[in-house]
Structures are given as C-alpha cells and as structure tokens.
Amino acid sequence: AQSVTQLDSQVPVFEEAPVELRCNYSSSVSVYLFWYVQYPNQGLQLLLKYLSGSTLVESINGFEAEFNKSQTSFHLRKPSVHISDTAEYFCAVSEGSTGGFKTIFGAGTRLFVKA
Amino acid sequence: DGGITQSPKYLFRKEGQNVTLSCEQNLNHDAMYWYRQDPGQGLRLIYYSQIVNDFQKGDIAEGYSVSREKKESFPLTVTSAQKNPTAFYLCASRGADRVLGGYTFGSGTRLTVV
Known about the structure:
The structure holds two protein chains of two kinds.
Chain A (H helix, E strand, L loop, with lengths): L2 E4 L3 E5 L4 E3 L1 E4 L4 E8 L5 E7 L5 E3 L5 E5 L4 E6 L8 E9 L7 E3 L3 E6 L1
Chain B lengths: L3 E4 L2 E4 L5 E7 L5 E7 L5 E9 L2 E4 L6 E3 L9 E3 L8 E8 L9 E2 L3 E5 L1
Parallel strand pairs in B: 2-11
Antiparallel strand pairs in B: 1-3, 3-8, 4-5, 4-9, 5-6, 7-8, 9-10, 9-11
C-alpha cells in the first residue's frame, strides 16, 4: 500500500543555517513526488515536484529535493534558511503511470527558523 | 488571476446543525477535492469529483456530503452526523493533466463547533 512518512514533525533551525526535511515513501510502482508549503491559516502551495528525468529538482526560492529511488526518499533541502521560510512543509506522492486520481500526503514537518 | 476561492474563512457550527462550505474555481480544472486537516495528521481526503455530476467518497466521507452541478463549484456540507467536525478544510483542484501540475489549493475554511 502507498504511504508517505515525514520523519520529523518539527525542525527548529537558526537563520542562515542549512536544513533538511526528510520524506520517505512506500510504493510498488512508479511515483510522482511533490513538496508543498503551508503558511499559517492558508492553503498549500506547490513548492517543487519530481515527475521524471533529473533526480534533483529545484524551486525558485532556493529549496531543492532529490529523488532517490533505491532509498525511496525525496528529502527537501535548503543551504541557508530565512525567517520567512518558517512554515509547514508537506511531502506528497501520486502513484502510477497516469498519476491516479488520489495523492497521499505526509503528516507535515513544521520548520521554525530562529533569529 | 485564476484560483480557488473558499468561503467563509471562519465558520462556527452549533451542535446538530448542517453547514455548507463553498469552493469555487476559475481555472477550468476538471477535478476538485475536499481535504480535512487536523494538527499532526496531514491532509485526509473527504470527497473528490473528476467531472461534473459525478463524485466519489474519499477516506473519511462519513458525515459529509458534496455536489458537483457546475464545473466551477464543489460545495461541501458538514452534516450533524459528523461527530467531530472542528478542523481546517481545504478545497483543491487539478487540471486535465491530472498529476503533472500538482494541486491548486484554496486558502481554507476553519470550522469550529460551539
């Protein structure tokens, strides 16, 4: 069965430090992988996605994620975080060649950036 | 600009009441979804619709109902049968390419039972 595990519920980090938010999934077929960001009392916004091709994908605000098929992981990284990166981050997986009609979300990781 | 509009932003429900959450999109997306978000549990799928006049139950449909009479609109009714309705509700849509673009989410409705 498809599942998504975000290994850390909260990640505190100092401003300008690097950060990694971990995501592992289980699936027996090909997958499409996403990271979404949610600011307080708002909906989710798509941050980046892996569909095919290069296993390293980047967002416009400095985040990157690497698809590792052998480890079934899609960890999110940023080399230097800002206060404004404080938010909740969700990893999501869609399964199958057509992606299916349903996406499974992880429980979320709350990133807290301290000055 | 295209997007998804959810209203109201905050909603209070008395015990035994039905309430309806609105979701409207002008993205011309075929598929629409309702998710419930509780702290520490991520998003759970309530209902989804892939085409007008058709919808399917998600993982936690009990106590909820939906309709899809127009492509742009996918309202969610929280009925009195839903015993623990206090949560943040998110509406989302996805275009014909289904997966490639990911979801577009509304800004959510926070429902509280009083």
